[in-house]
Amino acid sequence: AQSVSQHNHHVILSEAASLELGCNYSYGGTVNLFWYVQYPGQHLQLLLKYFSGDPLVKGIKGFEAEFIKSKFSFNLRKPSVQWSDTAEYFCAVNAYNTDKLIFGTGTRLQVFP
Amino acid sequence: DAGVIQSPRHEVTEMGQEVTLRCKPISGHDYLFWYRQTMMRGLELLIYFNNNVPIDDSGMPEDRFSAKMPNASFSTLKIQPSEPRDSAVYFCASSLVSGRVYNEQFFGPGTRLTVL
To answer: Which residues of A touch B (CB under 8 A)?
Structure first.
């Protein structure tokens, strides 16, 4: 069965620090990859997505993610975080030609001024 | 477009009562998903529909849970009878999958359910 692992459950950073959140999935075929963000008390919003092409994808608010097929990874990065980035981040995978998204357990990011 | 609409936003009920959560997907989207989010289990897919037809309900926890989609613009998730362990945030999401090209899911604001 497909699964998504987010190894960092809780990350605490100071403003201007760099961020990298890990995401690994288990599926040998073609995949579509997503990062969603959930700000406190709000619903999930799409941060960025990868379907094909350049494995380095850029999303909103300065976030980017790199798809490394050989490592089954899709890590999220931001060079300098802001207090407003405090949120929960979810990695999700869609196996090609299927209907469902499989979500990771999420990473809670806290950014202190 | 107003996005995915869910109602109510908050629901507090007593154990044993029936609870009905409602969702209006984005117009034109042909897939609708119901999720449950808890601290312990994260985000779980309960059931999803394609063109109003339930495709996979393997995530529905028990027979107390049921979902319907009578038309393309409305879906309900019902819990009867409700129990305290059903307390969670329930999200509805919709997406458009055309020609097997998968697209992102758009989430509603969620319904926070508290069962006392």
So the answer is: 32, 34, 36, 42-46, 49, 51, 90, 94, 96-97, 99-101, 103-106
Place of tokens 């999930």: A44
**Percent of chain B at pLDDT exceeding 70:** 95
Count of beta carbons in the 10 Å neighbourhood of residue B112: 16
- β-bridge pairing A24-26 and B5-7: unpaired
**Distance separating alpha carbons of residues B68 and B113, to the nearest angstrom:** 19
Nearest to B111 by CA among B37, B44, B48, B61: B37
CB A91 within 8 A of CB A4: yes
pLDDT value of position A14: 97
Helix and strand tally (H, E) in chain B?
A: 0, 11
